[in-house]
Amino acid sequence: MFIFMLLFSRQGKLRLQKWYVPLSDKEKKKITRELVQTVLARKPKMCSFLEWRDLKVVYKRYASLYFCCAIEDQDNELITLEIIHRYVELLDKYFGSVCELDIIFNFEKAYFILDEFLLGGEAQETSKKNVLKAIEQADLLQETKRSILKSII
Amino acid sequence: MSDVVEKTLTALPSLLSLDSQPGSAKLSSSSKLGNLIRGITELTSKHEEEKLIQRELLLIKEQVSSPNTTMRQMKELMVRAIYCEMLGYGVSFSYIHAIKLAQQGNVLEKRVGYLAVSLFLNEGHELLLLLVNTVLKDLQSTNLIEVCMALTVVSQMFPKDMIPAILPLVEEKLNHPKEIIRRKAVLALYKFYLIAPNQVQHIHNKFRKALCDKDPGVMSASLHIYLQLIQENPEGYKDLAPSFVTILKQVVAGKLPMDFNYHSVPAPWLQIHLLRILSLLGKSDQSTSEIMYEILDESLRRAEMNHNITYAILYECVKCVYTIHPKSDLLEKAAKCIGNFVLSPKINLKYLGLKALTYVVQQDPKLALQHQMTIIECLDHPDLIIKRETLELLFRITNEQNVTVIVEKMLDFLQINKDDHTTIDLVGKVAELAEKYAPDNEWFIETMNTVFSVGGDLLQPDIPNSFLKLLSEGFDSVEEDKKLRLFAVNSYVSLLEGGPSKLPQRFLQVICWVLGEFSHLREDLEPDVVLRMLAKLLDMKSSSSETKCWVLMAMTKLCSGGAALALVQDVSETYSSSLDTMLRQRAQELQILSQDSKLQAKVLPRSASMEPVEVDSSLSFLDGFVSEALAAGAAPYKPPHQRQEELSRSKALNMEPYGLSLPIGMSSCSVTDRQSPTLLSISSGLSGDSADFSHKGSSAALKLDGVKRLWGRDGYLAKKEAAEEAPQVEAASPVRSPSQRGDTDGSVSQTPTPECDQEKQQLASSLFVGLATQSSVCLMGKSEPTSQRFRRKPKASGGSEPMSNPLASPSDGADNVLPQNLLDSSDLDVSSPEQTHGLPQDPDTPNGSCTAEEESADPMAEPSAHEDLDRSRDSCLSSHLPAELSALSHSEITSLCSNQSLDVSACHVQREDSVVLVVFVSNRSDFCLQQMRLQVQSEELEVSCASDCPSEELKSHSVAVCQYLLTVQRPSVHFDLSATVSWQLPAGSPQTAPFSYKLPLTGFIRALRLSTEEYGAMWLAYSHDTKLNLTLMDDDQDPLAATLHVLKRKLQLHVVEIIGVEAIVACCLQQDQPCLMHCRVHAGMLAVWLRSPVPDLPDCLLYHCQRALQEP
Q1: For the residues B907-924, what does the mean pLDDT come to?
Q2: pTM of the full structure
Q3: Which band of pLDDT confidence, cut at 50, 70 and 90, is reported for residue B608?
Q4: Please, what's the b/e burial string for B1073-1088 (b: 16 or more CB within 10 A of its CB; e: otherwise)?
Q5: Of A116, A123, B641, B792, which is least surrounded by CB within 10 A?
Q6: What is the CATH number of the domain that holds B1073?
């Protein structure tokens, strides 16, 4: 199970945070601060897995963004890397060659996609098609609503 | 920067949600977030950012609370609030508005509302209760998107206490035609299982149905639940192993839709999940393991492609192969796989290879030998993570022959490591190895010196604790003990002479204790000299008051000589006026004992440190004092929980039920665990991974037995815990001998010259010595006591046995009460007709059952015959009551269902400890009825068959009697039982008739006989309560007594005591579920307050009290 997922930039700015366990804001801030520092200090050729405190942390850098997940002890590190990758693929497909700015300005969309992909810390739907279908359906609703409204106006 | 915004806007036309308003509004409000983001990126200092955000927050705050803000604007405000929160600013004012948005907005606004709620709140938050109704409404919505959103939020967080409110709706969704809804419902149930396993106990059969779902997504979602269930109780699910193997086979063979492929590997997530489940099921179970060999072999063979995803599967396969019952050719293949990982140039794979090696080296130490050169290389790897993992591996293969080299490597690592968590962990391991395999005294003491100085004050308290215990208890030979102690004394004297100011406090405390206890062993050392050294410690600025206490205690032990009396007097005078009470007490002790050497010898006998101190834990010597104080009018002592209770009761709002729902497991599991001294113990707390946890935690428990008084002082541990955040103590170790350091520098060189290679070879031979002879390998936690050099006495070593895991036990208990027959059925068929045990809704059962009242108006029945029967039924049928029940009171026998061929009636009988439902089936026809069967079930009751119908045949005009034992699972005002009877006429097709029976809660209520004291204790322990005002009975003399009398007669309540206008009453539901009632006459009404440990019971009982008092 995922414990949390953080997205942050090379400058250490947090772009997305999703916590799957109940923690106080203070703890969250402390973990975020320290983990971001630790990950940023690592060199590019180094291992993507960390044993950080008593957590297993898996991170990967895509362009200027770091995707960083904490998982439970018995979880598989490599598959976690691929989950990160799948998420990036999903973002890419949805936004169309995604960049950091897409995520900054549309972070709520990024959250929607994440919730459709990982639910309660577990991979919910691994089929790319199905995830995007679900998101598009919700988005579509917005389109139709708008057109109805327009027709009323 | 503006072009940045523009880019985003053009690239994303559907940005945000302002679309429902046409025209200019779209641009302006979309740029609100845009402006904010742009504004922030333009700033240069943190201070400016803070100012900007505070301004923004004020704006948001003003707008969200304005009544004119539309939901559409609210949605946009929430997005901004989420953004501010991500930047680390508190937006708690907007939480309630997020909930409101989820409640009142249209679908799109709702979506943002739910998102904000899931990001802002966590499952313990009290505002979450306000979301329950919204979720309820959305779950019932006809709009799929709304249902999805509700399920999504429920799977992430939901107040534990409110689960019963939505559970039926979520369960219903398991049958939804859309697979996305079914999938989310399964995950929601998984979440419920994690936070409140007993709430979903009764739907375990539905999990099976989800496992058989035709949609692979739903099926794989159900695996999350199974992984969890199997982790907790592998024995209960062995029958599913063949099914999991079959699923895996199909997946591996590519039978799933192409959508589930990931880089042309079929459903890797699913594969890994299944492999994990299989390894749990096959662990130390040969027969179950055998059915998986084939598919494991296949998986190992298939995963050939050079991609991370195949390595992930391989890694899981290898772990599985080494976990289940071994099979040699699979082990060989797995070992080869590990080799490929270790030798891989990819650093991630190398790391996992090392991890796998660490994992398997317990079973196969020779595998480490094969890869020794790679391991040596990894030991010098620039990435500390790799290095650290290598040390972990070495730790597992340590034995007497290689311990010095391995410990040296670990200490080297500690010098460069900067992470506190790793330091604590590694220092603990060094101490463990030193204790087990130390080659000689000198090495042991020096290594421990390094441990203490490197570990500093971060050290887990059990390390100095067990070290001192080891010194004081000694080993088998007295001579050896003396040598070791003497060596320690010598070493510490030289340390103190060399300047103690750099030593960590914890180490100084150890030194003080050892010198106080054993310095007399060194004959050339005068106590005065030691006293002077110790006195110096008192003058050091860095010494904490705790250390000073230790110093004073050591002085107390040494002061008998008399020569340094002046110094001792001086010291004790200085500190007897200290503000620290502990210090003051020690100073007083020192003063008194230094003047009276006889008393000193009696209180602190020399070389008797291992004698246990007798402690009068009941403090009986204070009894006189207490009774005097009580007589003088002092308040009696109340335990903390009672005080807390009274405090909370005096508050206006009783927040108690919410307080209990906090995740208690988290804090309790982290404290003693050496592996996780920081607050970050979440993983172990939530996963409930029992094996791992108990293993890690085993060495961390504090062993206090037999340790001298000064060690077990209260508050000591607590203080150390608080010190965990103290900055790390300088890593330099002043105590390592120069020769050792020289060795290190010589053996590890950075440049790869031929000499270096040779050195590596040498290192390898010293590291892996003794591995070929398997017996001497140290497996963590499995080492034989005889191979340890410093063997602790038996009672001490008992502490390293794995403890029972407090987290795992309750859930184990919960699993035991699962209906066992479900788990035994070998196929996955959910609705086999035999399973009537409390399983709601057998698909064969028609839903439209008719009640007894409706039945009497049934046109199908012959009216005249019916009436006749009615009159005579009771007397006639009651003669059929079984002998053991006929003496007991039974309810009126009611007819439930009748037709041409048979007539069903029932009553319930109240026994002392249970309620029995007696069903009479009378054959009215002239034929013999065949294959007569009854099925009875209920949502709230557990129905178990006490005695079934004697036979399936029912002769003409005879009566069959069936008995069912009823047990309450969930209190309810009334319990509905739905049942079917099926039969067959000699020449006819099978027929069924449904009927239902209703019985009130009162049937299950029994008097609970208690004393007032017991009542008081129980009252405080219960959390579910209800209050209501009831009408009093009309009685001129004593309305209270009259009212209680009615309750006693009608509901069988037990009146514990009546004091003036107050009374306390007790009863219980089925013997073990008490409910307490407190009544007070107030303003012509009876104010009743009920409490129980069982949710809903007070409410249901109150209803019946009300009824009892209203009815004549």
Answers
A1: 82
A2: 0.61
A3: low
A4: bbbbbbbbbeeeebbb
A5: B641
A6: 3.30.310.10
- B123: distance to nearest CA of chain A, Å? 6
User: Of the candidates B985, B1003, B1021, which is a domain's last residue?
Assistant: B1003
Q: Cβ(A63)–Cβ(A74) under 8 Å?
A: no
For chain A, list the domains and their CATH numbers.
Answer: 2-151 (3.30.450.60)
Does the beta-carbon distance from A112 to B115 stay under 8 Å? yes
Q: Do A51 and B308 touch (CB under 8 A)?
A: no
Residue B426 lies in a domain: no
Strand, coil or helix: what is B1061?
Answer: coil
CB B777 within 8 A of CB B770: yes
Give the ipTM. 0.92
* Residue range(s) defining the domain that contains residue B1031: 1005-1110
Q: What is the pLDDT of residues B868-881, one digit of tens each?
A: 444 455 556 777 77
- Count up the domains in chain B and report the number: 2
Cβ-Cβ contacts under 8 Å, B49 against chain A: none
- One domain, residues B991 and B899: yes
Binary contact (A141, B19; C-beta < 8 A):
no
Residues of chain A contacting residue B115, judged by C-beta atoms under 8 Å apart: 108, 111-112, 115
- Model pLDDT, residue B1079: 85
Given a contact cutoff of 8 angstroms between Cβ atoms, the answer to whether B220 and A90 are in contact is: no
Same domain, B994 and B1083: no
For residue B756, the model assigns a pLDDT of 62
Whether residue B1045 is found in the same domain as residue B976: no
Q: Which residue has the higher pLDDT, B252 or B713?
A: B252
User: Which ranges of chain A does DSSP label H, i.e. alpha helix?
Assistant: 25-40, 77-95, 100-105, 107-117, 128-152
The answer to whether B385 contacts A137, with C-beta atoms less than 8 Å apart, is no
Within-domain flag for B465:
no
Q: Quick check: B14 and A139 CB within 8 A?
A: yes
- Angstrom CA distances, B351 to B15, B38, B347, B429, stand at 42, 41, 6, 20
| CA dist., res. A142 & res. B216, Å (int) | 29
Min CA distance, A105 vs chain B (Å)?
A: 7
Q: What's the rounded Cα separation, in Å, for the pair B341 and B349?
A: 5
Residues B1104 and B1019 in one domain: yes
